[in-house]
Structure formats: structure tokens, C-alpha cells
């Protein structure tokens, strides 16, 4: 609900099969978890922080940059007087995580050995392929801006050499010497030796993508006063990335907590003990229900015109529950009324999300189906007016339903699609 992905909901059936009571499991959002954890760290555990600095000071605003494997998740928090955190802004960037560097490394090998051979190695020699990636992961963590000379990396030499001889009709060394990297890559035993500049260039695209995302964030008016960047996640330990961010944002302080790769995990534990640490969040999408109201020629377009039981209606209207970017505190509720159909024991409706603030129809660009709500009706012999209470402000979307006339609380379920 609060990330740039479809909303979260814990499947009750799966939780029960795992032997976990549904009330004992909650979803923690990664940047939030990291933010909560860093509230408890002393200055000496925050690399880049000035003496006496504390993130728990009232009014402190900071940007949490969660640098994981696949994406970069950014959240901006402000510390409130009551001790809670409120979300000011948020964004997510693809192709900005540590694995995108792995992908660029594989593309370098493709330029040397060809895509078919790399694909064959991945399919037929998965252990060797994984060893190659793991070694690259290990070596890339050691690279610093000042690194010069050669970077040595162990490779599954026997596997690569055998594949080259079988499919390229030449050994690995010959394949490298015939490639565009003949002057910057060489072999010594079972190690591949890279010129340091070439190895560091594998980080360029990913780091530039991150810098572009951060620059875009700081063009937002509400972030002008944010002077602190908190780097967390496994990729935040990359010295090249840290140096690039510090160079780009000289007027802002860049802080990296000790053991930044584990801040999310440790923060999630703290969140489990105190979910009220986050006071408010911003809704990332507009949410609504697909419906068929009476057709209004002044507002509805003809392509959505249909006739149902002799009545002119408008198909696939996006009936908004809550708009994108609405700031909601924990437990915020929105009430909507729906009428059941005579003879049907359940009231069912489909919930949609949209990246637009005020979508008109559920079939327009940017809209997507997220789930189906089913509400059991106590008396299907007559139409029931049901008040549905949608709950926002937590990390999950939930709902409750009550029949307005009888006051009966309905059994309801919400299943993500």
C-alpha cells in the first residue's frame, strides 16, 4: 500500500499452515524498519554523523535510502514530538540495486564469450555459475575509489575453459585475447585479472541511476530542508557509491550506520514490538472499487455505455475510496456503502489501484486490479445496505462490514489477486 508495488496483505491460509497465529505476524516496510532502528543508535555507530548528533531529536528530517539488491527504496521521515515518525515523501527506483551491477558484469562476459555460452553455463553448470556470481559479489565489496592496478577474481576456470573449447573451438585465454578487453583482462591460474578502472566502470550505470533518483527527490519542494541522507541496506556498504553520493550532495550530511546491511532486519524486530513507531504514512496509490453507476452523458464517455436490465449504466467506473498521496495516521478508516443483490448470499466487489490521483475508469492506463472483497449477507431475501469500513494507515489494507439496518457485523474476507 505504501511502496511502489501493489498493496500488501498477509494470506491468512498460508499463515495458519505455517503454524503462526495471524495476530502474531505483521508486515514491516524496509525503509521504515531501518529508520526505526537508527533512532536507537548512538553517534559513534553512525558513520558521518557529527559529535552529539541524534536521529531521535524532535523535528529532525532525514532521507532513508534503502540500497538493496534489486531496487532502491527512499523514504523521508520527520521525528515528531510524541516520539513517532511521519512520512514526508517516498520513491522507488528500479535497476538501482546491487544486482544490477552483477547483470553488467555478466554482460561483460557475454561480450567476451557470447550469450549462448553464458546461457549454457547457467543451465548446465549452475554450481559453477553461482560460484562465479558469489565471487564477484565478494570482490565488488572490496573496491574503493582509490583502487588502482589490478583486481583479482577467482573464476571456475576449468568449467569456462571446457565450455570455450567445446563451443567456441578455442580456449578461454584465446577468447579473452580476441575480445575488446584483451588489454584490460588477463588470466593467471584460476583467477581473472581486471584493470581496476574497468572493474570500477561496472558500477557506473547503477550509481548514476541512484544519483539521478536522489536529485529528482531533492527537486521536490517539501524536501528542500532535508539535510541528512541515511544509507542502509547491503549495497550501502559500497565505498564507490558512498563517495559518489557525498560528492554529489556536498551540502548534505551522508550517514551510514554501522552494520548497515542488517539495519532493516534489526529494525523489523523493533517494529514488531512497537508498530506505533510510525505515526503516519502517505498512500502511494489511489484505491477504489469497480462499479456501474447510472450513465451520465455529461461526465461519462460513450465507450463505457452499457444497458443492464433496461437501465443505462456506465461500465468500469473507478469509485475512489482514497486518493494517492493522502497522509494517513494509524487506523485511519474510510466508510463506503454498497447494496447487495436479492437472492445472493454474498456481496462481492473488486478493488483496484491507480498511480493517478483521480482516475475515472478501472480500465485506463495506470490502473490495476489488486484483490477481491467478499462479504457474507445474513438475509439474502432482500437487498442489504452494507457499510464497509476500509482501514488504512497500517502496513496492510483491511476491511470490516456491517449491515446498516440489522446492525449485523458481516463475515468478510479480502484476497489479493
UniProtKB/TrEMBL annotation:
Q: Which Gene Ontology molecular function entries are recorded, alphabetically? A: ATP binding; ATP-dependent protein folding chaperone
A Pfam family that the UniProt record links to this protein: HSP70
The record's keywords, sorted A to Z, are: ATP-binding, Nucleotide-binding
InterPro entries according to UniProt: ATPase_NBD (IPR043129), Hsp_70_fam (IPR013126)
Q: Which family does it belong to?
A: Belongs to the heat shock protein 70 family.
Name this polypeptide is given: Uncharacterized protein
Amino acid at each position: 500500500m505504501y511502496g511502489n508495488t501493489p498493496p500488501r496483505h498477509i494470506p491468512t491460509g498460508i499463515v495458519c499452515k505455517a503454524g503462526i497465529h495471524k495476530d502474531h505476524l505483521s508486515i514491516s516496510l524496509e525503509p521504515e524498519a531501518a529508520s526505526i532502528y537508527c533512532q536507537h543508535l548512538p553517534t559513534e555507530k553512525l558513520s558521518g554523523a557529527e559529535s552529539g548528533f541524534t536521529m531521535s531529536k524532535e523535528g529532525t528530517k532525514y532521507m532513508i535510502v534503502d540500497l538493496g539488491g534489486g531496487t532502491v527504496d527512499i523514504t523521508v521521515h520527520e521525528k515528531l514530538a510524541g516520539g513517532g515518525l511521519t512520512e514526508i515523501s517516498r520513491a522507488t527506483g528500479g535497476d538501482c540495486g546491487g544486482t544490477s551491477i552483477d547483470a553488467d558484469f555478466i554482460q561483460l562476459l557475454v561480450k567476451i564469450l557470447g550469450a549462448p555460452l553464458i546461457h549454457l553455463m547457467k543451465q548446465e553448470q549452475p554450481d559453477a555459475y553461482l560460484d562465479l556470481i558469489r565471487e564477484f559479489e565478494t570482490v565488488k565489496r572490496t573496491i574503493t575509489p582509490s583502487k588502482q592496478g589490478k583486481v583479482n577474481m577467482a573464476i571456475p576456470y576449468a568449467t569456462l575453459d571446457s565450455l570455450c573449447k567445446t563451443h567456441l573451438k578455442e580456449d578461454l585465454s584465446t577468447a579473452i585475447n580476441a575480445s575488446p578487453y584483451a588489454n584490460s583482462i588477463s588470466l593467471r591460474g584460476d583467477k581473472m585479472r581486471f584493470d581496476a578502472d574497468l572493474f570500477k566502470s561496472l558500477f557506473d550505470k547503477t550509481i548514476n541511476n541512484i544519483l539521478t533518483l536522489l536529485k529528482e527527490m531533492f527537486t521536490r519542494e517539501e524536501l528542500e530542508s532535508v539535510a541528512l541522507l541515511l544509507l542502509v541496506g547491503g549495497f550501502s556498504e559500497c565505498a564507490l557509491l558512498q563517495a559518489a553520493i557525498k560528492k554529489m550532495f556536498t551540502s548534505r550530511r551522508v550517514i551510514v550506520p554501522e552494520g548497515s546491511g542488517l539495519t532493516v532486519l534489526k529494525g523489523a524486530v523493533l517494529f514488531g514490538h512497537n508498530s506505533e513507531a510510525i505515526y503516519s504514512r502517505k498512500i502511494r496509490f489511489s484505491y477504489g472499487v469497480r462499479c456501474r453507476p447510472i450513465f451520465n452523458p455529461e461526465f461519462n464517455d460513450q465507450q463505457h455505455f452499457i444497458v443492464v436490465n433496461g437501465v443505462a449504466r456506465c461500465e468500469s467506473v473507478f469509485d475512489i475510496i482514497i486518493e494517492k498521496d493522502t497522509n494517513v495516521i494509524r487506523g485511519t478508516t474510510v466508510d463506503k456503502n454498497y447494496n447487495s443483490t436479492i437472492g445472493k448470499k454474498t456481496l462481492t466487489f473488486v478493488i483496484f489501484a491507480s498511480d493517478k490521483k483521480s482516475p475515472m475508469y478501472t480500465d485506463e492506463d495506470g490502473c490495476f486490479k489488486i484483490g477481491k472483497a467478499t462479504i457474507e449477507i445474513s438475509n439474502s431475501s432482500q437487498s442489504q445496505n452494507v457499510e464497509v469500513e476500509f482501514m488504512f494507515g497500517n502496513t496492510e489494507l483491511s476491511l470490516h462490514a456491517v449491515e446498516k439496518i440489522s446492525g449485523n457485523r458481516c463475515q468478510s474476507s479480502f484476497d489479493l489477486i
